[in-house]
Structure formats: structure tokens, C-alpha cells
């Protein structure tokens, strides 16, 4: 592998919050206990229809801050980072994340919460990621500008709209971490279902 600069999104790309949304929503009283709701999309739909957008934004702020320890790394992402670093690549994280969660009266620093989560799971020690290579941007345009400024050769993200934005650098390769979403959701992007597939793609590049 040539020395490549690989950029990774953070939320819902490295950090998997899926199983945290329902229990946290119940715990902080946004939905009744025992509803049977499980997925993030189910919780989002219910909150938006019954309590409004503010309730959904409040839950996100809690998940990304106070309750971030309920989240887990996606399977294979740590192995991906270790493998590409061992082959001479450089890995950076570029995340669109506000410093404070919406409607969070505790005013927890979401940037520090995310860095702590990465640290406690060995990303800065066992996997070899450099803490200085984690960038947080308050806006999507800031994130896109950072990707361009750093000069990423490849970027991995779960949001197709990042890749379709005119501000996304034309020189960067696009790897859509789609999970189990329909291929049509990507608007023609190459679909990557898991981190093992992403690793195979990157390792096969000359």
C-alpha cells in the first residue's frame, strides 16, 4: 500500500450508538418503558411525531455526551485502523460535532466525551491512533473544508450527503459505510456493508 491519508467519520461510522437509544430514551423519560422500540430510527420517528424535533435533538445530545459509554465500536473498525497503520497509512478522524449537546443543561463537552470514549477503548494506545489527528468541526461545511485541507486520499462516512456535497474534495475517494441500508440510499455510491469489506477495498488499492 502506498502511504495514504485515510479520513474517517466518527459518529455512526466508528461509534455505534444503535443499542443505546431506546434504553436512554426510557431512562430520561422521553418514551415510556416497555414500548418495545429498539432501533434508532424507530425512536427518532416516535419522538418527532409525538414530542417534536427538540425531543429528538435532546436525546442525541445525551447519547453523545452523558451516556456515550453505552455506545460500542463497530465490529472490525479497530482492526481496520491497526491494519492500515501497520502498512504505512495515516489515519485521521474528522467529525461534524458541536461542542455542547442541544438542550443539555449539564453542558457536557461532547468533544472531550468522544475523545475519552476513544481513549478508554484503546484507539490511542493499542490501535495506534494519534489523538492530535482527531478533528471536530461545528458545521458540515467546516468538516468538508477540513477534509480538503488535510488532503485525505480516502474518506469513510455513513452519510451519503457528505459525499454528494459540492464541498467534498474531488481528489478524495468515497467509501460509504452503509450497514444494512438500501443501496439506493447512497445515490450511486459504492456500498460498504462492514469494516471488513472496507479493509479489503483499501488493502487492494495499489
Per-chain topology:
Elements: E1 5-8, E2 15-16, H1 21-27, H2 40-50, H3 53-64, E3 72-73, H4 77-86, E4 90-96, H5 110-120, E5 134-137, H6 140-150, E6 154-157, H7 160-164, E7 173-177, E8 191-192, H8 195-204
Parallel strand pairs: 1-4, 1-6, 4-5, 6-7, 7-8
Antiparallel strand pairs: 2-3
Helix pairs in contact: 2-3, 4-8
Structure description:
By secondary structure, the protein is α/β, with parallel strands linked by helices. Helix content is 37%, strand content 15%. It contains 8 helices and 8 strands; from the N terminus they run E-E-H-H-H-E-H-E-H-E-H-E-H-E-E-H. The protein has helices at 21-27, 40-50, 53-64, 77-86, 110-120, 140-150, 160-164, 195-204, and strands spanning 5-8, 15-16, 72-73, 90-96, 134-137, 154-157, 173-177, 191-192. The strands form 2 sheets. A 6-stranded parallel beta sheet has the order 5-4-1-6-7-8. Helix 7 links the parallel strand 6 and strand 7 (173-177). The protein is globular and about 55 Å long. It starts with a strand and ends with a helix.
Amino acid at each position: 500500500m502506498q502511504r495514504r491519508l485515510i479520513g474517517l467519520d466518527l459518529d455512526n461510522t466508528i461509534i455505534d450508538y444503535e443499542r443505546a437509544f431506546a434504553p436512554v430514551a426510557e431512562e430520561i423519560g422521553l418514551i415510556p418503558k416497555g414500548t418495545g422500540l429498539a432501533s434508532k430510527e424507530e425512536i427518532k420517528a416516535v419522538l418527532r411525531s409525538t414530542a417534536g424535533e427538540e425531543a429528538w435533538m435532546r436525546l442525541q445530545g445525551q447519547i453523545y455526551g452523558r451516556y456515550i459509554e453505552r455506545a460500542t465500536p463497530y465490529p472490525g473498525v479497530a482492526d481496520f485502523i491497526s491494519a492500515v497503520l501497520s502498512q504505512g497509512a495515516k489515519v485521521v478522524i474528522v467529525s461534524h460535532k458541536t461542542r455542547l449537546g442541544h438542550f443539555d443543561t449539564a453542558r457536557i463537552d461532547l468533544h472531550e466525551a468522544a475523545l475519552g470514549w476513544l481513549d478508554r477503548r484503546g484507539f490511542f494506545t493499542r490501535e495506534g491512533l494519534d489523538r492530535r489527528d482527531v478533528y471536530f468541526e461545528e458545521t458540515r461545511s467546516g468538516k468538508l473544508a477540513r477534509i480538503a485541507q488535510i488532503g485525505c486520499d480516502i474518506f469513510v462516512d455513513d452519510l451519503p450527503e457528505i459525499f454528494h456535497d459540492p464541498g467534498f474534495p474531488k481528489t478524495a475517494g468515497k467509501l460509504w459505510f452503509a450497514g444494512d441500508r438500501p443501496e439506493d440510499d447512497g445515490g450511486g455510491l459504492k456500498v460498504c456493508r462492514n469494516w471488513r469489506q472496507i479493509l479489503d477495498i483499501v488493502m487492494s488499492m495499489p
